[in-house]
Amino acid sequence: MMVESPNTLRHRLEDFVGQARENERKLRRFQNFELRLIGHDSLFALIKDVLNPDAVRFRWDIVTLLLLDPEYEIQRILKEEGVDLDEYPSLMFATDSDDIESLYPASLFPVPGPYRRRRHAPLFQVPKKAPASIMLLPLIRYGRLIGSLNIGSHDAERFSREVRTDFFEHFSAVVAICLENACNLERLKRQGLTDTLTAINNRRFFDQRLKEEVELARRNIDTLSCLLLDVDYFKQVNDSYGHQVGDQVLIAVAALIRAQMRSTDVLARFGGEEFSTLLAHTPEAEALDVAERIRTSIERHRFQDPNGRPFTITISIGVATLNGGSEQAMQFSAQGLVGQADRALYKAKAEGRNRVLSLGELVAVSAPRT
Questions:
Q1: Candidate list 186, 273, 274, 284, residue with the active-site label
Q2: Does 73 qualify as catalytic in the annotation?
């Protein structure tokens, strides 16, 4: 039996100790990163942190994230936060679970190995040099894939097939939990403030923002415009085509209105077939132009009845603008602004519908008596 020399044993022990210390440092890096991710209360902040780890400490050259989003819910949440998704090419979405499951055909474990252009190029469509080796991390909740975290390195040996994946298994589980919790938190935030049919803000949210925006207009000596929009003869749509078609009309109308607005503007379902918007930093002439674009887009849109036959609808819009620079600005009231828009809407309907109408700039509205 061959006996190893003391020097050989010492070198082997030093290798073991060195490897143990390296593993401890690696574990500490992952733990610190995980704690930071767990502390986020914003979905967007979490995603940004996942996509931008410390490149020096982790030696990851490219990080991308593919999330399953069949109902466009996550994308809608991010857009409502003012995120321009085009500015984040490393964040991708899949509407079909097969698109993610195909990345992990053998098992739901991390997949290290060399970069294969035909297979991996769609995951690394960023304006950078293609990686030489990759590590794909499945994001799993309750046995179901919710996404894939994709890491690339320019070092061909960084993610060789022999690399240990236990740290990555734990890390991917933490990221999956954080993403699910962040999405659930966003859902809770919106549950009491979102209209379930159209997925836009509801009256409660609008009333909250209305007070805030009026105060801002006063403080900053700025303009604030309010639009009240009402679908003309909506009862006839329900009576003629049924309530399911009526619901689809409201969903489409909400989308058509949103398409003419800035991401920072407020859109809400005011009630029934009535919608409301708040346009900050918007004088009356500009608000009238926005309202007219909305009216035109809805008038030109072709809806479909249950048999696929097209039909059209129109909308009436009342506009009111608050001028925070007037001498009587402190007398402005939130309800007075909505009240003037409502009076303009009533007049628009009385004059034949399918029109935009303003009663003039709001420069002196007394607060309601208490």
A1: 273
A2: no
